Amino acid sequence: MALDPKKKRLVEDDEFVKVNVRIDPPQPGKTGAFSARKHRYYTPSGLEGGFGSCTPRIQYLIDKIAEIAEETGDVVPYAFVDRDGNRWSVDAGCLDAIGPSFQKLVTFEKRGGYIIGLIPGSKFPSRKSPQVSDLADDIADIANDVSLPPTERKALIAARIGQGKFRKRVLALWNGRCAVTGCSLVAVIRASHLLPWRAATNEERLDPENGLPLVATLDALFDAGLISFDPDGVLLANRAMASHSGLLEENMRLSRNPTARMQAFLAKHRAANGFPQ
């Protein structure tokens, strides 16, 4: 990133996360909720004056943030590439309108003081993912398991929601990048368990070799059993993905060969989801 000394904000860089959402271009002569040009990164104090809560473009922004949040696991990137390959960033005025200074619908994920993501808060009118209830059940099971020491319960709960030491260790194994795309925007990378949570022991749940750091789209596909990886790390896709080819690129694979232990976990993932061994 480079700093524009006159405007005191970051100017365009190439860290655009891919999301499977379509953004409609604004009508001719009108400003939209998302900008297709001048992708600058702002500090909260550098935003351009929030405005009314009921304008059509604010409502459009809210709807799209809810849609993206379902895919990315709640953190919505400030700048991204939509499913049609178009680059967008959130309009600064709209960003201010829904942010902490005005409607307080989102908080900001920041890096170096600059806004790189939006996190919907308790007031945000978003929809629940079908996986939410499973997550809540698993966390409740851990919290109620009195046979586990408190420190282990805490570590397991953090691992279940993709946070804590498990996530840090998984990211460290892959140099802080998505294992497939190489994306280094940590806010949108999730630590995916290779062996499904409910099929793993507590030791395996915390084992970083039972994890892959994947951007949200790949994480969701992997968790749903729609993709997997062969022993050499080549991505395998379920037949159902043929009608959703825009989600994947040709010849995708892990950026390095999996270890023997990872291969063992991946073999179980392939078997559970009908992929060839």
Question: How would you describe this protein?
Answer:
With 277 residues, this protein is α+β, with helices and mostly antiparallel strands. The protein folds into two domains: 2-120, no CATH class; 132-272, no CATH class. Helix content is 30%, strand content 17%. It contains eight helices and 13 strands. The protein has helices at 56-72, 92-98, 132-143, 150-160, 164-173, 202-206, 216-223, 260-272; strands spanning 2-4, 9-11, 17-18, 34-35, 76-77, 79-81, 87-90, 106-111, 114-120, 189-193, 211-215, 227-229, 235-237. The chain is globular.
In short:
With 277 residues, the protein is an alpha+beta fold. 30% of the residues lie in helices and 17% in strands. It has 2 domains: 2-120, no CATH class; 132-272, no CATH class.
Count of DSSP helices?
8
Order of helices and strands: EEEEHEEEHEEHHHEHEHEEH
Order the strands across the largest sheet as they lie in space. Answer: 3-6-7-4
Give the tally of structural domains.
2
- Beta-strand share of residues: 15-25%
What's the N-to-C terminus distance? 43 Å
Considering DSSP H and I runs of 4 or more, what fraction of the residues is helical? Answer: 25-40%
| Spatial extent as radius of gyration | 20 Å
Question: What coarse outline follows from CA principal-axis ratios?
Answer: globular
Structural class: alpha+beta
Q: Which assembly state applies to the chains in this document?
A: single chain
Count of DSSP strands: 13
Specify the biggest β-sheet.
4 strands, mixed
Low-pLDDT regions:
1-13, 126-133
Would you tell me the overall average pLDDT? Answer: 79
